Amino acid sequence: MTGKLVLAILLTAAGLALAPTPGRAAGILRFGQNAADIGSLDPHFATGTQDRSLVDMVFNGLVRYKPGDGSVFEPDLAPSLPAPKTEGGKQTWTFQLRKGVQCHAADGVPAYELTSEDVVYSLQKSADKNRSAYAADYTGMTVEAPDAQTVKITLDKPLSPVLFFPKVANYSGGFIVCKRAAEKLGAAGLKTRPVGTGPFMFKSYSPQERVQLVANPAYFRGKPQLDGIDFRYMPDLSSRELALRNGQLEVINGAPDKAWVDKMKGVAAVKVDVFGVGEVAVLNLRTTAPPLDKVEVRKAIAHALDREEFQALFGRGIAENVYSPVPARFLPGGLTREELAPKGLDYPTDREKAKKLLAQAGFPNGFPLEMNTSEMTSYRVLYESMQAQLAKVGIHVNVRMVDHSTMHSLIRKDANPLVIYIAWRPNADVYLTQFFHSDSIVVTGKKPNTNFAHYDKIDDLIERARVETDAAKQVALWKQAQLRILEDMVAYPIQYQNQVYARSAAVDYGHDLVSVLALYPGITEKTRLLK
Amino acid sequence: MVRYVAQRLLFSIPVFLGVVTIVFFVVRVIPGDPATAALGDYASKEAVEALRQRMGLEAPLPVQYLRFLGDLLRGDLGVSLITGASIREQITHALPYTLELTVVAILIGSVLGIPIGVHTAIRRNRLADYVGRVLSLTGLSVPAFYLGILLILLLAIRFQWLPAVGGGGRDDLAETARHLVLPALTLGLVMTASVARLTRSAMLNVLGQDYVRTARAKGLREAVVRLRHALRSALIPIVSITGIWAVSLVGDSVTVEVVFARPGLGKMMVGAILQRDYTALQSIMVVYTAFVVAINLATDLIYGWVDPRIRH
Amino acid sequence: MPLAAGAAGGARSELGRLWGTFVRNRAAVVGLALAVLVTGFSAAAPLVTPIDPLEQSSRSRLQPPDGTHLLGRDTFGRDVLARVIYAGRVSLLVGVCSVLLGGVLGSGLGLVAGYSGGKLENVIMRGVDVLMAFPSLLLGLTVLAVLGPGVFKMILAIGIMLSPAFARVMHSSALALQKREFVEAARAVGAGPRRILGLHILPNVFGEAVVLGSLWTASAIRVEANLSFIGLGVSPPTPTWGNMIRDGTPHLLNAPWLSVFPGLAILVTVLAFNLLGDGLRDVLDPRLRE
């Protein structure tokens, strides 16, 4: 009796196993993202990679970063890029709008043509701290609609195009939401129901499982080649990898790990893409926390660390060393190793020197430090590696592992004397302002942001660079500011980490991948699945 | 029978209330403030204050507790602190994955475990018995999530017979079933081990008792003795054992869902824990409690059905 | 018959008889040997392996097993074998301590309930029913989610989880013993409840508690592995078997040794305590001896 039953169960299981996977719509691209769920699909709150990639497909900006290459601006909702004018002593930027751009239909709001009213609404929303996470970037900006097809932006202080266009590009606060839908849905509704003008339209959301998008047949650049996107939340890498290998997914977020990349490159019908922009990992040292208030101690820490050891955790090509907080590889204003080495500001690894510096500062036997790390791999491995490296000069770090968002709130309360922060910022000004301007000091600053070092010595350089319209002079000021940072050793730049995605060989993104701000390969109306 | 059912149902209520109350108070002793914990990143003081209001954290604890019970009575499970989405909707979505998994696993566990237990008891001290005992003790010692990993390595990676992860689309029955096989097998095998082991000892107990010997002495055929008499009276402890292991299997289903990335209640629960979504955590525990109480109730009812004496 | 207090013939020969029964049970001897081996290895870890389990070498990460690193290296280039050996410390510490905590707490409650009877008994045992009706892993998860990670907190959570099971068994033993002649005799000569509990009941349930303790150490180690696997265990870089498996899962396809070996360690350890518990039961509780 037992035997027969077992046999019956095994046969049923085998039958199920061998049943062919039934067909599905051929033009749906299935995308496995490294996240458990959405954070927010309101583009002005979408700060996580998983959200940035989705809103990128649903919304447009007035201008856009060229797909696959974030260093070039192209027209988007505006058919051309304007040049700034000066009116009444103030800088103005006037955008014409493309005609016939349709807002997606949403529950109870039929599709309608996007006008300057929507753009004004959207940029004002971005500037409102209750309705946007990026409000600080939009202060001192007035937006008006002289007519239905024209948007005029007036700035209190002039900006160079390098600093202005990112505010109206398809990234963060620059995404244009459709006013009628936004008002109907309200703040809570927008979180899970994005309504824009992009190539793909929201179809459905199943928490912790997926978001489905369908092609927007009325897209102004033409009907997308894909029928839709099935965006799956799969925080487990091996799950995503297996699903890609078995043909259940077309694109997956991979591991920033050379071992993984090399292995996947060997798999038939799978392609791996490694591309920028590289998020920069910087160690911020709190200058007000004893014993870190002594510059010798901070320099000792810098000399105790080994960039090569950090890099080997991910592999060359996946991670690359950086020597200044602004990454020279991607942004004007960064400093290279060659520029810094003659001054010794690249801080080469020298643990003997580190010990001497510690002894000079009065800590010949080192000292203990307490801190928190996110459980997210990219943070955890850096903290754990730092822990082992600092132990070699007698600095004993006790690391507590907490949830990612908990770490974010803890470090903003000065819980960590050493803060490793991994971030991409669109230009040197944002990097320097958010991390090193005294207004941005956490807890005590005027507008607390991410100045974990409590550093206040380069405010004038940052402010002068911001309003400098001569590009070369601007870059020189940014470099000068960073030399100060390194001389005072308030931040030890570790590395940048490239994006790693794998795809089925059938996927053609429709553009080459150099650097993408949204940290995903970029899916547009041109993306297609080859037979 | 009706009276028995009613009596059991009534008994379930205090158990349900008890666990739900424990959960409520455990969640309230969070160090720090759940509202701050939930908002994280860019939260302003006003936003935290607003959320505290919305969560009703200003009210005294007894008031919060009564409100909580009132909401439960109305079937209101609150909204997620992270996404603001209805938790009831999320649970409705996740629950089928967990129900299918546990029910199929319990079936595998009983359908394999009981016959194996009976068989090894009859074949006591023979090869089948030894093999069975070693396997069931091993099964009892292996954490379910580790068995799941081994099955993935073998059946999904080495042989690529089955999908390792995910839940399969809800709209496609074959796909759903294929995704169910490995996780259900994982949990089912763990349960099989314990059920087989305890069934065996229950059977041995009965086989040694007087009336079985009497039946044998009366010259009844051995097979009849075993099945009619022995199995029947061993059935009561077996049902109770199966019930206990079915409940413990619900606990194991959490890590198994994590290993197989199955979008069920367990995965939702771990997600809620990592995101510090305490409203969701609390509501998920309420649903688990209801589920476990239902399993206990079912066990009691099967009891009553198997042994009429219990009903009285 | 439970281990009788003050049985005639001297305690020594009684122990000798028990030991004789125990060593005849081959499975139990294997269990004891394995348990001693695992405990010894992790307690004397620095003597067993010269390699520091925390020593990183990221340049040689994820190297497969070879002559010097028998079980390969992990994502930081740390030696997996050394980590497996050291990880036993946390798992065993949590396993044993939580059972001790649960045993003392639960047995205390159960004995008091069984001996006192009446309202107190009702309150305690209904509470136990409620907790028993629920999967311990789920309650442990909730408690730890709130407390946060850490060895001590884990012991607390698992200990509390285990206590109702001890309480229930001890309660029924106490009930059964109440009616036995020697307890009634003691009561007849005017012994107080504390004396009866301490002198007559406690020694008699001790054997049973040891058996349960051994079996539940096995469960506790399994639960610890589950909690660590989910990420609620101790903080890095301290290795535990559960967090090693967890850290290995992203590399299941290219470095399966990261997860497979710590899992085997759990399996062997839990199996050892299960075998040992079974053997002890056969020795100490002859009613169940086959």
Characterize the structure shown:
The complex is a heterotrimer of chains A (531), B (312) and C (290). With 531 residues, chain A is of the alpha+beta class. Helices cover 30% and strands 24% of the residues of chain A. Chain A has helices at 2-18, 49-58, 116-126, 161-164, 179-192, 237-245, 258-265, 295-304, 307-312, 337-340, 351-360, 377-391, 404-411, 428-436, 459-467, 471-487; strands at residues 28-33, 63-66, 69-75, 85-87, 90-96, 102-103, 112-113, 141-147, 150-155, 200-206, 210-215, 228-233, 251-253, 270-285, 319-321, 367-374, 395-402, 418-423, 491-504, 507-508, 528-529. In chain A, the strands form 6 sheets. In chain A, strands 1, 10, 11, 12, 13, 14, 15, 18 and 19 form a 9-stranded mixed beta sheet that branches. Chain A has a 4-stranded antiparallel beta sheet with strand order 4-5-9-8, covered by helices on one side. In chain A, strands 2-3 form a two-stranded antiparallel sheet. In chain A, a hairpin with an 8-residue loop joins strand 6 and strand 7. In chain A, helix 8 packs antiparallel against helix 11 (351-360). The model of chain A is unreliable at 1-24 (pLDDT under 50). Chain B has helices at 2-28, 34-39, 45-55, 61-73, 87-122, 127-141, 144-158, 173-207, 210-217, 222-259, 265-275, 278-306, 308-311. Chain B starts with a helix and ends with a helix. Helix content of chain C is 72%, strand content 0%. Chain C is built from 11 helices and no strands. Chain C has helices at residues 11-24, 26-43, 45-48, 80-116, 118-132, 136-147, 151-178, 181-188, 193-230, 241-248, 257-284. At the A-B interface, helix 1, helix 5, helix 6 and helix 13 of A face helix 2, helix 5, helix 7, helix 8 and helix 11 of B.
